[in-house]
Amino acid sequence: MNFVEELKWRGMIHDMMPGTEEQLQKEMTTAYVGIDPTADSLHIGHLVSVMILKHFQRAGHRPIALVGGATGMIGDPSMKSAERSLLDEPTLRHNQEAIKKQLAKFLDFDSDAPNAAKLVNNYDWMKEYSFLNFIRDIGKHITVNYMMAKDSVKKRLSSESSVGMSFTEFSYQLLQGYDYLYLYKHENCRLQMGGSDQWGNITTGTELIRRKEGGEAFALTCPLITKADGTKFGKTESGNVWLDRRYTSPYKFYQFWLNVSDADAARYIKIFTALSKEEIDALVEEQEAAPHLRPLQKRLAKEITCMVHSEEDYEAAVEASSILFGNSTSEALKKLDEDTLLAVFEGVPQFEVSRNELEGGIKAVDLLTEKAAVFPSKGEMRKLVQSGGVSINKEKLAQFDAIIDTQSLLDGKYLLVQKGKKNYFLLIAR
After folding, report:
1. Residue 42 and residue 243 in contact, taking contact as beta carbons nearer than 8 Å
2. Chain centre distance of CA 122
3. Cβ–Cβ under 8 Å, residues 74 and 65
4. Taking each helix axis from N to C terminus, what angle separates 199-213 and 151-158, rounded to the nearest 10 degrees?
5. Which stretches of 309-396 are assigned E, i.e. beta strand?
6. Is residue 366 very low, low, confident or very high in pLDDT (cuts 50, 70, 90)?
7. Where does the pLDDT of residue 81 fall: very low under 50, low under 70, confident under 90, or very high at 90 and above?
């Protein structure tokens, strides 16, 4: 496959240096993307550049993922309004290992193919490099005028905040430029890719290679992803959507993609999956014919949840999603782990009840009127139970005075009460 053509129809090219496409058609080429190791998990904001590396490898080229251990100790000023906190080496190493595990779901690191992916950390070549040697070897090749002309620098210097820009941050583009030079010399790397906000840093690298080595290197950036309404992609009310299940459960991850707008789904399915143009075109047609069935969102959520987590996690997320809409069984409910159960029923009314009272057994009518105000009166509860409108843990309550005890608790802690078709209540035994 032609890498540039592939990215073009997917809407994944923002800028590309002249000669890039010719270089890629000429030979197997090595390219890298830098990843910031400030956390021990990637979030979905990283996925665009990770997918670019995936397509690059699929096209027969060799991808390098560079974990910015050294640059992560400084902080990139690009389009940021303030300096970030700096990390120590043990934290960086831990984050690097965690990120590699996540990248291995997208890239082939382990085969003996000539284009197997590689993970590098710029801390490894920067830690012994003295400041004097760096400014002598590298600093003299790039003028201050050249560095000041970059948008990321101009934006920070002209911002109304009085914070300004530290020398540490100003030097960032030199360090990133040196990474490119190092990989050019040691890995025959001829292309750096990244988000459009990285264009200035990347071209500093191509300029350094030209001035210091007389070599030719290339740059390609992808657009920064936004939502159709112009707001920032990848953020929810509770913060980032992470790839690590400790921070974002597979259920919440799946729900994020399932709930994107139609306009966003049509763009995101090109960017965040490896589905072919024909498959995507067919899904777009389906969506236009029956938008209420949301085939684009369902397929997008499936592809990306399977890729980041697993098929089992995807199936569990689908099953968990169906619980809210009343057509699943008590078996499905009992299979949910505690985190998913709480995620599914986030926002439903909750009541705390005494575990001691449940241990001895308590009548359902007393539990749901006196101990938890699910019903305003015993009479109303009796009527709804008689008409089959009350369920506990997805099983119809046959008698309003049935005994409920700790055996009924989900995860030894929860009771799910359903009143009518749509009203849920979660009782928590403490």
Report:
1. yes
2. 23
3. no
4. 130
5. 350-353, 362-363, 390-392, 395-396
6. very high
7. very low
